[in-house]
Amino acid sequence: MSEQKTSDSLEQSLDGGADKAMAAKGMYDTAKNIGAAAAEAGKAAAQSAAASGAGAAASAGSGAAAGSAAGPGGTVMGAAIGFTGSLFAKPVIKGLIVIILVVVMIFSSLPSMFFENPVDVADNTGPEEVYAQFKEYAMEKYSEELEKRKNEIEDEFQRRINSGEFAGYGHVEFTYSFNPPEDVFMAELMEASTLIIAMFEISTDDWRRATFSHFKRAVDSVHFWNDTIAVEKADEEREVTYAVFYDEDDNETEENTLRIHITYNIYDMGVEVFRQRFGLTDDREFIKSIEMAHNIRVFFGEADGLPMGG
Fold first, then answer.
1. Does residue 108 lie within any of the structural domains?
2. Structural domain boundaries enclosing 12
3. Are 73 and 146 contained in the same domain?
4. Does residue 114 fall inside a structural domain?
5. Are residues 163 and 294 in the same domain?
């Protein structure tokens, strides 16, 4: 009885081993078929890539060939590489990649403090509000500086009158203008303010210090110690007019009026002063600031084209 059981058990083991062997062969055949199908797919992808571009075809063909040599798994990888190569060779895909890269480059070259409130980034209101706050403060200080220069011009002319320089004239009228004109100069200051913001960002190695309070302190310190607008006398024009008056007794009286107009060249010194204040003596860092300032203005619809004329 014991020998019979042993014989039956051995027979069952042999039968089980045969079944497992057959199953293993089936799995091997299945894997082989998958590998063959994947190889065909790899070849098809390589041929498609060859039609789109020689570089992609070479890459896809190499991937499929290497994959076939490596076995089913390698062939699938080769097919994937070939398919990817064919995608990158298509003009539409290339265009999308370029657009994505441009967007990433623009966003990566904008000041970090513009995106402190991510809730408002989607419709741009958050960054724009922050930008306006920084820019308005820079322009406010520029405007104060311009008013100081105007007051100095008028005070200087008043000193000339008080000194008796125009004593021979009955009346003196004084006017002045700037070169470039004031409205043009103010537009230049708007651009300079954006560049100052960019220089502030480039110089800040810790995002926690790139706040409005830090920016405000930096601007205040510069305007306390330095002049950010300079003027120089360029031209003085004089004109004398005469007028005759009669009193009640018909006595004739002649009066003359001296009209003086002075043109001043006006310069923005702020960019260079802030460049020194922020330690951007390296030209590469300064050029990086110029590029960032341009991208800021493009981002908020204030400019188009290339910075510095391209």
1. no
2. 2-89
3. no
4. no
5. yes
Tens place of pLDDT per residue across the chain (310 aa): 444 444 444 344 444 444 444 444 444 444 445 444 444 544 554 455 445 444 444 444 454 444 444 444 455 555 555 655 665 566 666 666 656 655 555 555 666 666 655 545 556 677 888 899 999 999 999 999 999 999 999 999 999 999 999 998 989 999 999 999 999 999 999 999 999 999 999 988 776 677 899 999 999 999 889 999 999 999 999 999 988 777 777 777 788 999 999 999 999 999 999 999 999 988 999 999 999 999 889 888 887 655 444 4
Which three-class secondary structure string do you get for the chain?
Answer: CHHHHHHHHHHHHHHHHHHHHHHHHHHHHHHHHHHHHHHHHHHHHHHHHHHHCHHHHHHHHHHHHHHHHHCHHHHHHHHHHHHHHHHHCCHHHHHHHHHHHHHHHHHHCCCHHHHCCHHHCCCCHHHHHHHHHHHHHHHHHHHHHHHHHHHHHHHHHHHHHHCCCCCCCCEEEEEEEEECCHHHHHHHHHHHHHHHHHHHHHHCCCHHHCCHHHHHHHHHHHHHHCCCEEEEEEEEEEEEEEEEEECCCCCEEEEEEEEEEEEEEEEECHHHHHHHHCCCCCHHHHHHHHHHHHHHHHHCCCCCCCHHHC
Q: How many domains does the chain have?
A: 2
pTM for the predicted model, two decimal places: 0.61
